[in-house]
Each structure stands twice: as C-alpha cells, then as structure tokens.
Amino acid sequence: MKAIAYQTAGDISRQDALVDIELPRPEPSGRDLLVQVQAVSVNPVDTKVRRGVSAEPGQWKVLGWDAVGTVVATGPDASLFKAGDLVAYAGSLTRPGTNSEFHLVDERIVGRKPASLSVAEAAALPLTAITAWEALFHRLEVERQVPGASRAILIIGGAGGVGSIAVQLARRLTDLTVIATASRPETQAWVKEMGAHHVVDHRQPLAAQVAALDIGAPSFVFSTTETGQHLAEIAELIAPQGRFALIDDPETLDVTRFKRKSVSVHWELMFTRPIFQTVDMDKQGKLLNEVARLVDDGTLRTTLAENMGRINAANLKRAHALIESGKSRGKIVLEGFGV
Predict the structure, then answer these.
(1) Suppose 196 and one of 6, 16, 180, 215 were both cysteines; which one would form an S-S bond, judging by CB atoms 3.0 to 4.6 Å apart?
(2) How far is 176 from 119, CA to CA, in rounded Å?
(3) How far lies 167's CA from each of 25, 156, 171, 178, 301, in Å?
(4) 244 lies in which domain range?
(5) Which pLDDT tens digit goes with each residue over 229-251?
C-alpha cells in the first residue's frame, strides 16, 4: 500500500523529511477496523512528532491523526461497524498514523462520517472536535457554574483547528458568551464566522481587552496555543474559582500564580483515552457520532479552510510548512492517494 513516512526526525526542509513509500497492508485483530483512507487532515501534533521523534532503526514512521474512509475489514471482536461503513476518527499516538492507504484503528474511538459532508470536509473534524469537546465538557465542565462569575469563556487561538470548533461548540451548545483571540483581519473574520461574540487580539495584553468588554471576569479560559506567553494575563483576567484548560506544551507552567484565585488547571490531550485504553475510551466514538449528528442537523459546520490536493509527500510537506509558519487558519485537508 502507498504511505508517506520518514526515518529521521528533523526540519521539514530536509529532502527526506517526508517521503512516498510502499508498506505491507495491515490485518485487523481484536476490535480493530481496517479502513481504506480517503481523506486526512494535518495537525500541529504531526509537525511536533516529525521534528522530535525518529523511527525505530530500519523502520518507517507514518504520521497522521485524522482520517475519513471506508471500513474494508474488521477484527474478530469488532461489533460496532461493518465493511462498507464510512467512518471518521483521529486514532492513537501509539499506533502508525493515517497517512497510508489502509489503516488500523480501534472501533471504540471511531464515529460515523457526517452524511452531509464530503470526505474532505469531514476529515477536518475528528481530532479537533474530540479535543475541544473533552476540554469544554469533560475537563472545564462549562455547564457547571462558577459562583458569581460571568458566564463567559475566553478561547485563545480561536482561528486554529481546535479553536475553530471550540468556538462553535461553546456558542451553539452552551449559554456562554464566547470571546476568541485572533490577530489578523482574515483570522478575526474567521472566528466571527465560527460564532464568537467578541474578538480580542492576542498580540496585545489580554486582560485589559477582556475588561473593556464590560461583561465581567470570564468563568473559563481555554488556551490552544502560546500558553506560556499569556499565562500572567490569564491569571489576571479569569474569575476567582474559575477553570483554565490548555492543550499546548509551554516550556514551564507556573501554576502558583493561580493559587490566590483558587483557579483549577486542566490539561487536555485527546490521545489519553486510547493510549491508556481507559474504561471510558468509547466516549470518543460516541462523541464523534454526536458531532456528526450536530453537523447533519446544521448546528455545527466543517472547519476545512484549505484542501491541498492528493495525499503525497510533496503536499504533506507544504501542509507541515504552513502549520509551522503560524499563519494557517481552520484545518488543512488532503484527499486521495497519488501524484
């Protein structure tokens, strides 16, 4: 089968940063589905792994943690899907990625493809939808009130892949006032299109901008990028007893600044459930099915911003470079294998 992979971690400018290869087609076991991949999207985790993690000696490392495709075979213990089903999922960091023609995934973390979307539009959603949903409803518990605080959330990095769906979820499924950050005219317009009530500039001090909205101190802050740069501002602007979640990897995270306000800090990694095979890992499949329902009834929309063409090394290199530039918005998708 065709696949895109690498052997040595490094910069995307390297000739061998990503290459087109052939690998054996895998066989499903246990609760696995074998999926023929039709579309994938690219996430910051792809670039982080490519820069920092080499393949085992003599092996290839396949990236990719978003896919839409057709089930072609199932393991003996699988019962939720059958051959011919169209599915969408993100997968697990501990298994080969989705940048291959055929891919194995545990059925418990798989959902149905939204019927109203193309395969490219659907591929934009799984990883970011799981991340945003878990952060908002499982970690921050935004439906649980913070006593006396404004029913508001600040989403830092509102135009990114996670931010784009988090804005939608917060706006469409809760009573929260949604404040999102964006710094350029095109990204500010994007987050408003996603549903943000207010937009502030993350290149400027955040606390003063949020205070100027005159809606009170937000109950919640969800930071998707550059958390280290904004930590002091977050501690200043968040309400006492508020809840703060992050998904990125700051070099240091001094949580003592939150002690005076008794702010709770929550890290969200959507791979936790599949990595540790938690007893509730099937929540991700159920979550993806609910996202598909919300898309099909018009509540949510795809966050696809750019389709870069076929799934091959050259196009994946372009996608990685754009994400690393910090200038992307929404999601980048590739569709179909070949040149």
Answers:
(1) 180
(2) 31
(3) 39, 10, 6, 7, 11
(4) 145-267
(5) 999 999 999 999 999 999 999 99
**CATH code for the domain in which residue 262 is found:** 3.40.50.720
> What pTM, to 2 d.p., does this model score?
0.96
Q: Is 112 exposed, middle or buried (0-12, 13-18, 19+ CB in 10 A)?
A: buried
Tokens of 227: 């958390």
Per-residue tokens: 329: 């918005």
Give me the number of domains the chain comprises: 2
Compute the C-alpha angle 142/143/145, nearest 5°.
85
**Token pair for 35:** 């999926």
> 138 in a domain, yes or no?
no
Which of 267, 290, 313 is the last residue before a domain boundary?
267
Q: Which of 223, 245, 267 is the last residue of a domain?
A: 267
Residue 122: Cβ within 10 Å count: 31
